[in-house]
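ugh ok fine here u go
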Amino acid sequence: MKKLLTTILMTALLFFVADRTLGLVLGALYEHSNATDEYKVSASCCQTRDSVLFMGSSRCLHHYVPSIFEQELGMPCFNAGDWGIKNIYYHYGLLSNILSRYTPSVIVLEVHPSEWLALPFSGPERAGSLAPYCGMSEGCDEMLKRAGSYWPYRLSHVYRYAGSLPNLVAGPWGPMDRQLKGWRPMDGIVDIAGIEAEEFAFEPDAERIELLTRFANTCREKHIQLMLAVSPMYVCTEADVFGFLHDFAKKHDLPLFDHFRNPHFIGHQDLFYDRGHLNRQGAMLFSSMLSKEVKLALYHSKKR
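structure:
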C-alpha cells in the first residue's frame, strides 16, 4: 500500500513538473505568435500600454486604424479587438486583465448586439480565449468560471494552450502585422448577390446587461473615458436594433457614435469586404470620421 501511494505521488509530481515546464514553453511561443487570436490576446494582456484602446469583436478588429486615430488625437492607440464573436464576457475579462497592469485614458468599445441579446453561439464560452491568462485577474477568472473552464485551466497550464497549438507552431508567420498595432485590414469587395440584412430577433439577456453595466462602472471608477461606437453595415435591418444601446448610453452618460446606418457607407460596395465588415479603404474612411468625433468628445469632457 505504501509503495502504491509513493508511486501515485511521484506520478503526480512528474505530471506537475512536466505540465508547468511545457506550459512555460507554450506561453513563450504564444506571446511571439502572429496568429490573430494569440497576438491580440497576448498583446492586450501583457504588452500594450497605449492611452487609447479600441475593444470589440471582428468589426473592431477590421475597422479601427490606430495610426489614423493617433494622428488626430495625438495619443498612442492600440486596437485590442478580436474576432470569433467576442462579446461582453470576453470584454469584461480582458478589461480586468488590462487593468491589472495599467490604466488607459480612453476606451472605445465597438458594441455588437451580442453584448445584450441572447444570441446563439455567443455565451460565456467566448471568454475561453483568455485561457492562457487564467489567474491574471479576478474578473478574468470570474468569466472563465462562468464558462465552466476555470478549474481545468488552473489544474493544467498545458491545457490552456490546447486550442492554439497549430498557431503556436506557425509562430511569427501569422497574418498579423505588429506595426499596424492590432488592426487587421481586409482587402477585397463584397459580393452583393443575394445579400440580405442581418436580423437580431433575440431576447435581452439580463446577465449580459449586468456585465455591460459593470464594464461601464469599472471604467468610471478608474477614471477611464468610455465611449461606445457602432460601425457601419453594408445593408441594415429596419428594426430598431440599437435602441437599447442609446438608452444605455444616456443612462450612464456615455458618448455614443452610432454609424450603423451611415449613408456614406450603406450600399457602397467599394467600402465593404462583406456584409458586416469594411475593407481597407472603408476602414480608413471610417477611422478618419470617427477619430474627429472622438477628439470632439474628449474636448467636451475636459470642459466639464
